[in-house]
Amino acid sequence: MTPTTSCDEVRDALTDVATGVADGAARATVMAHLASCERCRAELASLAETADELLLLAPERDPSADFEGRVLARLGAARGGSLAPPTSSRAARPASVRRHRARRTLVAAAAGVALLAAGGAGIWWATAPDRQLAASYRETLDVADGRYFAAADLTTGREDEQADPASGGGSVGTVFLYDGEPSWVFVLVRDAGDVAGYDVVVTVRPGEDGDTGEAGGDRPARDIPLGTCTVAADACSVGGALDDARVHDVVSVRLVDPAGATWATADRDPDGS
Amino acid sequence: MRGPCPVDKDMAVSDEALLAGMAADDPDAAAVFVRRHQARVYGLALLLVGVPAVAEEVAQEAFVRAWRHADAFDARRGRATTWLLAIARNAAIDVLRVRRDVPVDPVVMAETIVDPDRLADRVADGATLDGALARVPPEQATAVVLSAVFGLTGAEVARRTGVPLGTAKTRIRLGLQHLRDELTRRREVDAP
Q: Bias category Low complexity: which stretches (chain A) (predicted)?
């Protein structure tokens, strides 16, 4: 696919993404370009690495006494209890689960199938090429402001069906999500088919309960209309803010065709959160 | 208070292992990680916000955010130190957005950082980065530091340094490219 924007057109925005000062619109523009420009992906990865390295220029300074103790107290409060000494298997078990997840991710990446990309508050999956796309600038976006960036594969089939890319129900595009203020979603469709456009609907679950990470119980999810993805040259893209919703509350992003049927979906990983 | 962690254990454990431990809520791993990085994180926070009490808040927040995202850290993408410092920088910028009463003038600080004499003095410690930065034209180096370290947009760099927007954007872009190329060149030379 040919990039919808030229490399020259995005070069300043690309620099802004690398230094971490890009706003949501600039990020969306850059991502749309990166989706089909390998050269700029590599450029951004190296520029972002350079920009982050500049942070090492700050002189080291010792904080006041017991800074460490106050940090540990905050960590304990943030997880809803004290950080007890790791005397039981409680501390060891989650580590093994996470390591297992990391291994599984590597295996999945090697196989080129849908895989997990770990985020702080939720887990999204993406196909290997899109994961590389996301990974190439994750240092800048992934943990930006303690928020995170995610890319999810947009498919016309169910997740389990497209584990084998040859079995149909394939990837038709990518959904990008950025958790910020506001959070936003950007949908990029590569193979849009023979229709005028799709209505994009973002389904979000009720907000989490404070800092505990507990889901909002059985309260119903709600739909946020993102807008219309108008097809031109077999491709389309649309983006928008989620207003008060957060990325980790997003359950799915659906593309609805003019007849009202869901044509493609990006789902939250059922394993996530 | 917990018992002291042996120094040799502190030094032996990699940042990656400590982050994995933090992700699993291991308080010992968190303690070692905080101890190892607190001077860098607090130093950056103090540089950005200028007030010790605020800087401590920012540094604490950075460690909390790092803990939240510990399992998202990918060692293949870069060092834990810069990953953590990027989090600290963003936490500091969040603070700066809501309170502009901090006594830091980013332009003065940036010009101090990229001052050729200062960079020359720092050759012994972190020679690669300081040496590479010394090779970037000062006005570009200042613009890059303002953007990458202090979080200023092109428009803000233009306003604060008194140049047109296009000039500011070009300085940031070229400066970052020059620095990247210079770092790459030096590492290739340094490589055995």
A: 78-95
> b/e for B76-103, b at 16 or more Cβ within 10 A?
ebbbbbbbbbbbbbbbbbebbeeeeeee
B126 Rama sector, left if φ>0, alpha if ψ -120 to 50, beta otherwise? left
ipTM field = 0.90
- Kindly identify which residue of chain B lies nearest to residue A71, measuring between CA atoms: B60
Q: What is the pLDDT of residues B10-20, one digit of tens each?
A: 567 888 888 88
Instruction: Please write down the HEC assignment for all residues of chain B.
Output: CCCCCCHHHHHHCCHHHHHHHHHCCCHHHHHHHHHHHHHHHHHHHHHHHCCHHHHHHHHHHHHHHHHHCHHHCCHHHCCHHHHHHHHHHHHHHHHHHHCCCCCCCHHHHHHHHCCHHHHHHCCCCCHHHHHHHHCCCHHHHHHHHHHHCCCCCHHHHHHHHCCCHHHHHHHHHHHHHHHHHHHHHHHHHHCC
Lowest mean pLDDT among A6-10, A235-239, B135-139, B149-153: A235-239
d(CA B137, CA B121) in angstroms, rounded, equals 18
The C-alpha of B22 sits at a distance from chain A's nearest C-alpha, in angstroms, of 9
Task: Say if residue B69's pLDDT is above 90.
Answer: no
- Using CB atoms, which residue from A15, A83, A93 is nearest to B176? A15
Please compute, for residue A99, the number of CA atoms within 13 A of its CA located in the half-sphere on the CB side.
13
Count interface pairs A-B at CB distance under 8 A.
221
Euclidean distance between CA atoms A27 and A24, whole angstroms = 5
